[in-house]
């Protein structure tokens, strides 16, 4: 990680007021739509959205999920997310402090999502985070992010080498499969933006995050 957690948190809290208005790139919007579409939670499932920011993914998924848990390190982004949930009358989403490697949630979860956030971690930290996600035992993990399908190009608008640390698609796929995820879809939005859709082996009854703690 090129900045500390506290530095990233402060950076995003400062930007929280203008964040949503700034997210108008075709690639960001396409990536967010793909993450939401591939997450496709069942009506009784819990979704955990990591690096939730102002809740773009969490709030979009709330109407179709049982419950959505949004986790982020930035108090300002979380405050904006809570305010948007209140304005929209959505009470099935809970936003709170949590990190990729310590999400502060250990209940059952059916689907984990993350959009445009994991690239702040180094590759070793991403591996640790993906291990933590695997331990939560979701049936599906959908990762939308800055990722390199080809050569990295810092002149593109999607990342800043001073603060960001995107991985190659190959590194992400190796890490995900090492942690027991099976790649079921790859969406290339841009040479530096994509969505990886992964699922776990095993019985669904061992994994489904069902509201109330039960299993199907
Ligand atoms: C570019 S925003 C993306 C927000 C949202 N997912 C979206 O699609 O609009 C990245 C978010 O990741 C959060 N973040 C950065 N490092 C994090 C970490 N280690 N754990 C959790 N969240 C983190 C930031 O605070 C910020 O809100």
From TrEMBL:
Record GO biological process: methylation
Domain of life: Archaea
InterPro entries given in the database record: Methyltransf_25 (IPR041698), SAM-dependent_MTases_sf (IPR029063)
Annotated coiled-coil segments of the chain: none
Keyword Methyltransferase: yes
Domain Methyltransferase residues, every copy: 47-134
Protein name, per record: S-adenosylmethionine-dependent methyltransferase
Keywords noted in UniProt: Methyltransferase, Transferase
UniProt GO molecular function: methyltransferase activity
